[in-house]
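hey can u run this one w/ zinc ion bound, need the structure tokens asap thx
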Amino acid sequence: MIDINNIHSFSELVTAETYLENRRPKDETVTATDYLIVLCDEKILIVYDKRTDTCVLPQGEKMPMEVDASKMIHQITLPGSTHPIAKAVGIDELLSPDVIAKSIPLEDDALTYKWVGFREAYDMIALPLHVAAAKAKQLIHWEKTHRYCGHCGTKVVQVLPNMVRCPNCGLETFPRISPAMIVLIYKKRPKDDPNYLHDKILLVQAKTFRKDFKGLVAGYVEVGETIEETVHREIKEETNLSIKNLKYFASQPWAYPSELMIGFTAEYDSGNLILQEEELLNGKFYRLDELPVVPKKISLARKLIDHYLTCKGEV
Ligand SMILES: [Zn+2]
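ok here u go:
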């Protein structure tokens, strides 16, 4: 069994991820519209099938536990669709799987309820279900952090699936998404060197990273800034570098707790690397054939790194 959390090189990471991807249920297995997303902080409830060694989300009309009447039940649609495929709730107490099974029994003995880490679930359930669960996670975070009016302190009431209103002053509040940029900075190899693997990319280890890996420079948009200005400012602040050829890559919702990551590539232009000590533990330009452990495939950081490798530096 490969332990994805105990990886020491980029090649080991790729091998482990390939194994997990082959094992994960395929997108086409998501055909039902009665999935149940039950979250408790950073844990999600899944159903494990020991015959096939695969996992799905619970399904059914009723939540597999008593749910406090004060909780919102969120209807979850996938991006691009208007039909809900799941109901979601955030609970405060991690009930034991045995107690849950007594409340709503599973169909047969091969199935068991399990609580797993939300990021871990990415490798276990079909991708559209993880996308739905990530959306639910953000809505539940909003629900938990917007119970009272930010203006007058009165308890709010839910008016729309994604809106609460203050009955006293009428302030309407929607789920709050924080935009943040993430950027892959590359240094091209000399023009007479044909091997693109000799290009270098800047990898840094932020103090906020939960594990020992190297990622990309990232940062939040400040009030009054364009996203491009954020990229230049954050790079300058965190690394002292100047960049050129800034190009948009893609964006991705990031449910930790509720961000929209906006990804770019940029070419190193000038400056000596001086890391901002308050935010970064270490960092340097790594050759593509000497990459350390980098973020997992769930992240936009990794999609940027994989993109650079796939297009052989022709970004
Ligand atoms: Zn109010």
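The pocket of zinc ion is lined by residues 149, 151-152, 154, 166, 168-169, 171 (CB under 6 Å). anyway lmk if its weird
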